[in-house]
Amino acid sequence: MTTETSDRLPAESVGLRLARIDHTERLILCEPIRFDAGFNGVEITLRRAAISGRVEVDGKIKNHFADVLDDSGSIIETIALDAASYRALKTHWMRCKVERS
Predict the structure, then answer these.
(1) What is the sign of the dihedral through the CA atoms of 74, 71, 11 and 97?
(2) What pLDDT is attached to residue 45?
(3) For residue 95, what are the β-bridge partners?
(4) Can you tell me the distance from the alpha carbon of 46 to that of 29, in angstroms, rounded to the nearest whole number?
(5) Fewest Cβ atoms closer than 10 Å to its Cβ: which of 6, 24, 33, 55?
(6) What is the bridge-based pairing of β-strands 15-21 and 64-69?
(7) Ranges of H-type helices in the chain
(8) The pTM is what?
(9) Are 55 and 81 in contact (CB under 8 A)?
(10) Under a CB-based contact definition with an 8 Å cutoff, are residues 80 and 61 in contact?
């Protein structure tokens, strides 16, 4: 995540929700994660994921992405990810479970 990308992250960001599209075109959502540090927590977590792969605010979504959430849980931005950055977030920087429907 570049400084330019970081500057495009909304100031009211407090959480993230990972999502991916599987090989059958099914949307798989994870439970939302709210960071105690609010915006700083979101930004640091995305910077850490960027070490592993693509993290792009409002980028072209392929199969992996994260919704940026505000204080009320509403989606305020979307972050395009690749498989490596998604995996780093899901298994290391913000462990979360797949949400059951």
Answers:
(1) negative
(2) 96
(3) none
(4) 18
(5) 24
(6) antiparallel
(7) 3-7, 39-52, 83-88
(8) 0.91
(9) yes
(10) yes
Q: Is 65 exposed, middle or buried (0-12, 13-18, 19+ CB in 10 A)?
A: buried
State the amino acid at position 49 in one-letter form. A
Q: Residue 59: in which H helix or E strand, if any?
A: none
CA angle 57, 77, 92 (to 5 degrees): 65
* pLDDT values of the chain reduced to their tens digit, one per residue, 101 residues: 655 556 789 999 999 999 999 999 999 999 999 999 999 999 999 999 999 999 999 899 999 999 999 999 999 999 999 999 999 999 999 999 998 86
Other C-beta atoms lying within 10 Å of the C-beta of residue 3: 8
Where are the chain's structural domains?
3-93
**Chain position carrying tokens 């495009």:** 8
